[in-house]
Amino acid sequence: MTQALSPSDPASLLVDPDEQRSGTGTLRFVLTKVAEAVASILLVIVLGFLLFRLLPGDPVAFMVRERPTDPAQIAELRDRLGIDKPMLTQFWDYFTGLFRGDFGESYIERRPVLDMIGERLWPTVLLVGSATVLAVAIGLWLGIRAAWKRNSFFDRAQTGIALTLWSVPQFWLGLILLVATGGLFPSRGMHSPDAAPGFLPQTLDVLHHLILPCVTLLVVFYAQYMLVMRSSLLGEMNADYLTTARAKGLREDLVRRRHAVPNALLPTVTLVFMQFGMVVSGAVTVEAVFSWPGLGQLTYDAIHGPDLPVLQGVLVVLASAVVLMNLFAELLYRVLDPRVRTA
Questions:
Q1: What is the pLDDT of residue 313?
Q2: 197 secondary structure, DSSP code
Q3: Which residues are CB-neighbours of 170 under 8 A, at least 6 positions away?
Q4: pLDDT tier at 35 (50, 70, 90 boundaries)?
Q5: Burial class (CB in 10 A: 0-12, 13-18, 19+), 233
Q6: When comparing pLDDT for 185 and 18, which is higher?
């Protein structure tokens, strides 16, 4: 029979109390966060279903516009789409369909919503993913330099530029870039109809179309990372462990790179992963300005219907991506920061 170690037992001094409860604490933490993520997704599904029913416009009227249709045909169409069913019945059909992987059928295009989302997902990931990766690299680099040279001309200039760009509406910036470049870059779509066949010509054509919308997102995204990184690093500048590192004779660049920056990166982790979660949502206004065929453009077109199954499907994909990325960030934060594990 195993006996518990008493506090007076010398062997108990060899056991770290934090290690004793780390396994149970970690499991409880993970299960709690997973349960919160599931609850968040379910709440979004319910609220999204109800809120989209408040949108102005009649999907049936939009579908039959400019076509002579008698009331009997309109009633039959409503019955086929299930719009005339009670709200609770509509929600139950939609909710049970999600668990079967059935996101419904588009009112306008009469195609499965999941297929439409799958077709538009890659262009959005390419656009917003490219802008996010570049923004993280540029924003963190400028934020580190600005914080380490605080109150210098470089710091004040970069902070002012970042604050200005962060407040600029993305659609307005996109329109300004369209006018400023004077037709140097394509302004619509992802492909040119006269592009030469072949992998390399097609790739170069896509990159040519990608430049303007990517730059539009990049200059707004990077400002967030720059300001957050600068603020985090400034909070670490006077920490005792940096004073100790300097007292040991470490060079200033080693103090910054090996000690200050890794700790200052922790608050930025959540922002980075949440931004990657937003990748699947696209930038609705930017994709609309440049007619980029992604999820943002799909959402913009669906609002005009309103095409409720498409709007609901995009919302579920967006919410799931954001919640899952946020969950991953919280779990990673626990791994990177020992203070979270012992809290």
A1: 87
A2: S
A3: 216, 217, 220, 283, 285, 286
A4: very high
A5: buried
A6: 185
Q: Once rounded to an integer, what is the mean pLDDT over residues 168-179?
A: 86
Tens digit of pLDDT for each residue in 36-71? 989 998 998 888 888 877 766 666 666 666 666 667
Do residues 286 and 217 touch, judged by C-beta distance below 8 A? yes
User: What separation in angstroms does the CA of 229 have from each of 159, 222, 232, 264?
Assistant: 11, 11, 5, 7
- Asked if residues 102 and 111 have their Cβ atoms less than 8 Å apart, the reply is no
In degrees, to the nearest 5, what angle opens at C-alpha 168 toward C-alphas 163 and 169? Answer: 150
Type of residue found at 133: V
| Length reported for the chain | 343
What is the C-alpha to C-alpha distance for residues 341 and 149, in angstroms, rounded to an integer? Answer: 33
Would you say the C-alpha torsion 330, 336, 338, 341 has a positive or negative sign? positive
Q: Which residue has the tokens 């008698």?
A: 70
Tokens of 116: 């439409």
Q: Considering only CA atoms, which of 192, 203, 191, 187 is closest in space to residue 286?
A: 187
Report the interhelical angle of 295-304 vs 113-148 (nearest 10°): 120
Distances (CA, A) of 172 to 189, 285, 299: 18, 9, 19
Beta bridge partners of 105: 112
Give the predicted TM-score (pTM) of the model: 0.75
Backbone phi and psi for residue 112, each to the nearest 5 degrees, phi listed first: -60, 135
Residue showing tokens 């029979």: 1
The answer for 323, left when phi > 0, alpha when psi is -120 to 50, beta otherwise, is alpha
- Determine contact, residues 293/189, Cβ cutoff 8 Å: yes
* Residue pointed to by tokens 């409720």: 308
Angle at the Cα of 213 (from 194 to 228), degrees rounded to 5? 160
* Tokens standing for residue 292: 């980029």
Give the residue carrying structure tokens 């979004």: 44
Q: Residues 162-167: contacts with CB within 8 Å, 24+ apart?
A: 162/222, 162/223, 162/226, 162/227, 163/223, 163/227, 165/219, 165/220, 165/222, 165/223, 166/220, 166/223, 166/224, 166/227
